[in-house]
Amino acid sequence: MSILFAIVLFSVLIFVHELGHFITAKLSGVQVNEFSLFMGPAIYKKQVGETLYAIRCIPIGGYCAMEGEDEESENPRSFQRAAWWKRLIILAAGSCMNLLAGLVIFAIVFAPAQQFVTPVVAQMEENCSMAEGGLQVGDRILALDNERIYVQNDFSMLLKLKKAEAHDMTVLREGQKLVLKQVPTVMKEYANEDGTVSLRYGLSFSVEKATFGSRMAYVWNTAVDTVRIVRLSLQMLLTGQVGLQDMSGPVGIVQEISNTAAASPDALSAFLNMLYFGGFLAVNLAVMNLLPIPALDGGRIVCLLLTTAAEAIFRRKIDPKYEAYLHAGGMVLLLLLMAVVTFKDLFTIFRG
């Protein structure tokens, strides 16, 4: 059931993305030849006016095919003949819809919450290393090494990513913003209530009652934090901190959602955890599609801005086929990357 939920969720996010292109194209007067969910041969299709609506058999992706999107067209309602700012809106609309979907999903996930953990220090255990660096009870931690703390979980996440024994911390103390330089963050052994010993930092955080305002703030901060996580992941990929083995495609994502559900204590928690993963994925799709890579919306936006500027300077129309070649090459490379990552995911699953 969790795998089916994951597949449906992934498909809905793709549909929402393409719906953004479709709605803005229609509102901009651009002719849409086909609006399709999934790829491959059609298992259902219906012509309504100028647009063919289809559901195809390979549950990956989808598309909104506009007249003259990648080639010259004499049709006055073709994509290439629309004003540049209309084309910009159409191209950006898919990611905007994914971001909106992420916000809606996070709002649903956090709706039942009665309280939220805040990045305000509530208690510090004896010999806590951070107390030696000047951190005090009541401090609200605003940033760690100039990386903002959006939600409390950011604190532990950034400590793990930075992998250092001391960090600069920006805190809010009695209304004043202070920068604590090189605060030691060393884990020490502390006794637990059951008599066992565990390694931890030796501090705990405050909780606040959930209100409508705090829920909406938490939803927004979670979405912004997800955007930051994408940026950090790309930085780690470019610097070699992570590699191909750490990447996941649709198969790996479905498997991860299934594992998340299986690890949940009850059905409601499983549903909310899977839904949270869906919100995280929606924001990821929004950001990734805006990267300046050929075939992605971000690559198309960059080409649009460059060609618009070049045509304004040189007073000469640039043949859209050259841009089409660029995006076609980018699509081939992206499909190859997706195939490699998918095979890696399948290998990992079958290997156990």
Task: Describe how the helices and strands are arranged.
Blueprint: H1 2-27, E1 32-48, E2 51-66, H2 84-110, E3 115-124, H3 129-132, E4 140-144, E5 147-148, H4 153-162, E6 166-173, E7 176-184, E8 188-191, E9 197-200, E10 203-209, H5 212-238, H6 250-262, H7 267-289, H8 297-314, H9 320-351
Antiparallel strand pairs: 1-2, 3-10, 4-5, 4-6, 6-7, 8-9
| Global structural class | alpha+beta
Largest beta sheet: strand ordering: 5-4-6-7
**Helical run tally:** 9
The CATH superfamily of the domain at 115-209 turns out to be: PDZ domain
Rg, Cα atoms, Å: 24 Å
Helix content: 40-55%
Mean pLDDT: 85
Structure description:
With 352 residues, this protein is α+β, with helices and mostly antiparallel strands. The chain has a domain at 115-209: Pdz3 Domain. Helix content is 51%, strand content 23%. The chain contains 9 helices and 10 strands. The protein has helices at residues 2-27, 84-110, 129-132, 153-162, 212-238, 250-262, 267-289, 297-314, 320-351; strands spanning 32-48, 51-66, 115-124, 140-144, 147-148, 166-173, 176-184, 188-191, 197-200, 203-209. A 4-stranded antiparallel beta sheet has the order 5-4-6-7. The chain has a two-stranded antiparallel sheet with strand order 1-2. The two termini are 20 Å apart. The mean pLDDT is 85.
